[in-house]
Amino acid sequence: MQKLTGFILGFTATAAWGSFYIAGRWLFGEEGGNLNSWLFNFLRFGMAAAALSPLLLFPGNRQLVKKALLSDWKRFLLISLVGIVMESVLIFCSLNYTTAARSSLMANCSPIATVILAFLLLKQKTPKWGILGMFIGFGGIILAGFAPGGDIYADTGLRTLIGDGMALGSGFCWAFFTVYGADVSKKYGGPVCMFVGFLFGTILMIPALFFTVQAADWQAFKPRLWAGTVYTGVVTLAWANACWYAALRYLKPGVLGAFGYLSAAITFTLSLIVLKEKFSVMFILAIALILGGMSLMMSNPAKNQKRLE
Question: Average pLDDT in the 181-200 region?
Answer without folding.
Answer: 82
